Amino acid sequence: MTFEVAGEAYDRFMGRYSQPLARQLADWLELSAGQRAIDVGCGPGALTGVLVDSLGADHVAAVDPSEPFVAACRDRHPGVDVRQGGAELLTFDDDTFDVAAACLVVHFMSDPVRGVAEMARVTRGDGWVAATVWDLAGSRAPMAPLWTAMAEVAPEHPDESDFQGGSRDSLVNIFEGAGLRDVESVELAVTVTHPTFEEWWEPYQHGVGPAGVAIAALGADDRAGLEQVLRRNLGEGPFDLTAVAYAARGRA
């Protein structure tokens, strides 16, 4: 529901962080020519594009439950097998891929253990299954300034700190619960320079993800108060924000 938005809206909101994060994840997976890979929860295709650059479009598949995101991913990456669907029931045969990856998706799965287990099912033995999730529990996600200000202006709105997979232990536990072997985790950091406050703030106005939904639910006075607190905390720009994600990988 919170991701039935145009791919361009998501790009402005999260793509500036997810694209460099996707490149780091792909580097960690040590991709090699001839491998087949699937991007689970592909969104508009940030990680899909990185996989295509490494392996070729005919060696990449992608899946996402959002129809607008599927359409955007297909348009951006011709030749990729892009399907609409959820991680918990992948429409691919067993042992189809050498690598299955999910970038910033596990915490939105209705059943993360089942979703990761499905990723393992479609991955050949000894292939990597991997995922990234922002450090939500540690308030190191790109949205952290928003949630800090929201706690001051409208503390009744829940943040994302309790989402599954939003801490190192939670993400590793999901992987181990899905039956993966040799599970390991690292931190991946992304720093983005925002030239102005408006450039940072504008994408939050389009209802993307839990942050966008929370803002849309505010009344006019609370929304104005939220912007005032954010301007006080962040300044008018330019400013740098560093976000940290946990990445986990395990053998299928």
From TrEMBL:
UniProt record similarity statement: Belongs to the methyltransferase superfamily.
The protein, known as: Methyltransferase domain-containing protein
CDD domains noted in UniProt: AdoMet_MTases (cd02440)
GO biological process: methylation
Keyword Transmembrane helix: no
InterPro entries linked: Diverse_substrate_MTase (IPR051052), Methyltransf_11 (IPR013216), SAM-dependent_MTases_sf (IPR029063)
GO molecular function: S-adenosylmethionine-dependent methyltransferase activity
Phylogenetic placement of the source organism: Bacteria, Bacillati, Actinomycetota, Actinomycetes, Propionibacteriales
UniProt entry tagged with the keyword NAD: no
Top-rank taxon, per record: Bacteria
Residues that span the membrane, as ranges: none
Methyltransferase type domain ranges (all copies): 38-130
This protein's UniProt keywords: Methyltransferase, Transferase
